[in-house]
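Lab notebook: predicted structure, single chain.

Context: the supervisor wants predicted structures on file for every construct in the current expression panel, including those that have not yet been purified. This is the next one on the list. No modifications to the sequence; it matches the entry in the shared construct table.
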Amino acid sequence: MLKRLSHSRTMEFVQKLRPIDNAFFPVLGQDPGVMEEILRVILNDDTLTVEKVIAEYTLPNLPGRGVRLDSFCETGDGHRINVEVQKADDDDHIRRCRYNAAGMTWKEAEKGTRFKDLPDVCVVYITEHDFLHGGRTVYHVDKILRENGSIIDDGSSVIYVNTAVNDGSAISDLMQCFMQKTVNDPRFPRLSERVHQYKNTEKGAAEMCEELERYIDEITEEMQAKVVQLQASNIEKNKTISEKDKEIARLNELVASLSKKNSRPVNS
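Prediction complete. Output recorded below exactly as produced.
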């Protein structure tokens, strides 16, 4: 476990965070009011209510690879919605959404559940880049019968939203807020309030400091684990030893950098 960041360094970092950032969204994503506001805009439903929300929710009892959702919401009409935020552009986003939706379905399917009683699940996947390259802010994924073009509703849906394309819509305006360090938009009062609270009030700043420490510890452990994994394997057959060594060195440098930044005592 790394030592804590100095308070001044932590607050400096917090002021630079935006809702799109991995270190900030989970904090915002634990607030039902914030998630309700976001989902009402993206799903175009002013009557939608969020009854329950769990941030960074690890789905229990899944076989194989685990699933941790950025924000898991239960709505008033019984829908289960995963709101996921992804800045990176080097992953298979489509298959990640498929896996998240399957995980939610598995989690909700108790033994003996009839298929018709399975809850509807939706993944709202917010990215910084327009990885589908269609020049749109929003993409809705439908399952379609190839032979006649009719839509099949199996209770599972995916909506891709990005911050890169500004089409002047309410959704696009919301996405632009995700890219701002300061959010002050009367159309999104709850999001604006929470961003202000976490950055400018004593209580909110304390919560953010705690979250940031946890986040740094987590990503450092992940990088250290990856270094060990790379050292114990040949990575990919088409990689040379020198390329492998460069990747290990890069990760070691990142870990060392975080450790160095994290070595100052609190309130120094």
